[in-house]
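Fold sample X.
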Amino acid sequence: MLKNMLTVRLTSSEEQELNRYCQKEGLPKSQVVKEALALYLKKNQNAISPYEAGEDLFGIEGSGIKDKSITYKKRLKQILNEKHAY
């Protein structure tokens, strides 16, 4: 029973390679593509993002100032005022 249909654009070399593989293995293209997609999805279902991979390392060598990027102008003015106060 056909539920959904998907059109995929392949380069001519990808199509030739797929045709060769299917002919060699005696499999229809649709089966090969479905199996490849299933493997791809299984492999990537538990993949973590780059942020998650390094989350425990971020901020280890930080200044301890949590809002440093937000309050930099205020801190800069304070430093300059202290330096140039007469």
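Fold sample Y, listed below.
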Amino acid sequence: MSESVQCPKCKSTQISAQKRGFSGGKAVAGAIVTGGVGVLAGFHGSSNIDVYCLSCGTKWNPAKRATQEKQVLMAKKAAHESSWKKNFYKAYENGNQERATEIVTSESPHLIRNGDLDGAYRHLKNNDKVTTIIQIIFLILIVLFFGWLVSKCS
């Protein structure tokens, strides 16, 4: 069973796809900025495809739209994981073993082997610590890079 392509705005299946082609505006801008060779800028993005809704006129790029949808899905997944972990930590730390077991069993059953709730808690906390450390290191590297870049430009 195949899924038909729909307009993201009106959900119509009356759509048309077109290849972008040469852009005169980009060519003129490129020629002004760089001279004659800048005319080649008109070909930038010419292989991209745009999809148009014939019912409401909405235009979209399917590749960009897929990327955006994937980012939204990943953000929802991260928010869900953060939420259940928070609830698990709260239940475990308040001594509600039954609720903590219920949460970790429903969300990540591989973590609780042989009823080892303490091990699941330690594992999740350690992963959170490692993630935080990696984020801090990454942030430090970005700051150092920009500091180096500023010193080179001065």
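Sample Y note: Residues 117-153 form the longest helix (37 residues).
Also: DSSP finds four helices and three strands in the chain.
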